[in-house]
Amino acid sequence: MKKTAKVVASIILILTLSTSLSASSLIRNIAGKENKGIKITYNNQVQNLKDGHGNDVYPVIINGSTYLPVRAIADMMGADITWDGQTKTISIMANDSVEDGAVPTDLPSANNKNDSSNQNSPTQNQPKQDQSTQKNVSTNSGSIDNPVELGTTISYSDKYDIDNWTKCADYELTVSNVEPITREKISSLGFKPNDDTSIDYVMVTLKVDVSNATYEGTRDYAFLISYLPDIWGTEAKNGNCIIGGTHYGFDGSLKRNLEELISYKELHPGQKESFSVEGKIILGVYKNTENYLSIQKYVSMEKKDRIFFKLK
Questions:
Q1: Which pLDDT tens digit goes with each residue over 169-189?
Q2: pLDDT band for position 12 (cuts 50, 70, 90)
Q3: Are 280 and 204 contacting, i.e. CB atoms less than 8 angstroms apart?
Q4: Dihedral, CA atoms, 15, 21, 27, 33, nearest 10 degrees?
Q5: How far apart are CA 17 and CA 72, in angstroms?
Q6: Contact in structure between 131 and 138 (CB atoms under 8 Å)
Q7: Is residue 126 a contact partner of residue 260, using CB atoms and an 8 Å limit?
Q8: What pLDDT, in 10s, does the model give residues 282-310?
Q9: Among 134, 111, 160, 139, residue whose Cα is nearest residue 267
Q10: What is the 3-state secondary structure (H, E, C) of the chain?
Q11: How many whole angstroms separate alpha carbon 267 and alpha carbon 273?
């Protein structure tokens, strides 16, 4: 039997998941301090917690209590995590098929120990960089009620401002292809799909054009690869969500293609860079309803700053 832990919406903000509520009475501003000195161990092994982009995340101290990023912790323990938009509930499902003491390769995962995306070995699928200037520009806003049509391009500017550093860039995104993928195929890529029978999987091809990427801050540089858009997950028409997607760790994946294209190129203050890459993302989708790919802008973690794409 699976064990389920549900996290109510009133503490979603503390746990840094990208969700929002219209009921302002459930949301309050909280002052906290990030503490990079706290060490997290799992089964006596020190863990390096990661977000969906592979960036380091750390515990936060609020009023003397320590809070951990729930998505990173769930991924570390091999649990499945989903969002129910109707009940405003995050469900964390323990995977009983994993033996005690194992850190599994799960899907999606922000802390995948078996992720080979950093390897520099040659791959059969080379990075794709489209030089064409002809684009089918979307006339849709990209909201949940007016999502971007398949095969059309949406443009926007984004800004990530935190502590003493700022990243800015202009984006053009196009979902060019969507095709079903079986659980067997996912397993052959080294990931473990959710066994929930209400969920299927698709392989999405996303084209990303980034221009005018800049960085300013007290740190010496930012990695240009960190300017990839945030794959928030999928949202169904009925409001149910599947948080996260897998865009790394297999040949032809979006992040691996970008790594092969620019490696870990540094962007220093005063510089301006750009890149163009196309690659694949594995997404969970709910059966018998329309689903949308959701991209979270860095400017905020609110739903109003997410862009939605049709998947058919």
A1: 999 999 999 999 999 999 999
A2: very low
A3: yes
A4: 30
A5: 10
A6: no
A7: yes
A8: 999 999 999 999 999 988 878 889 999 99
A9: 160
A10: CCCEEEEEHHHCCCCCCCCCCCCHHHCCCCCCEECCCCCEEECCEEECCECCCCCECCCEEECCEEECCHHHHHHHCCCEEEEECCCCEEEEECCCCCCCCCCCCCCCCCCCCCCCCCCCCCCCCCCECCCCCCCCECCCCCECCECECCCCEEEEEEEEEECCEEEEEEEEEEEEEEEECCHHHHHHCCCCCCCCCCEEEEEEEEEEEEEEEEEEECCCCEEHHHHCCEEEEEEECCCCEEECCECCCCCCEHHHHHHHHHCCCEECCCCCEEEEEEEEEEEEEECCCCEEEEEECCCCCCHHHEEEEECC
A11: 7
Pair of tokens at residue 293: 């790919």
Structure tokens at 292: 């949308």
Six-digit token string for 99? 């033996």
Q: Is the peptide bond before 193 cis (omega within 30 degrees of 0)?
A: no
Angstrom distance (rounded) from CA 155 to CA 173: 7
CA pair distance 275, 272, nearest whole angstrom:
11
Structural tokens at position 277: 């890459």
Tokens of 41: 């161990």
- Residue 23, burial from CB neighbour count under 10 angstroms (0-12, 13-18, 19+): exposed
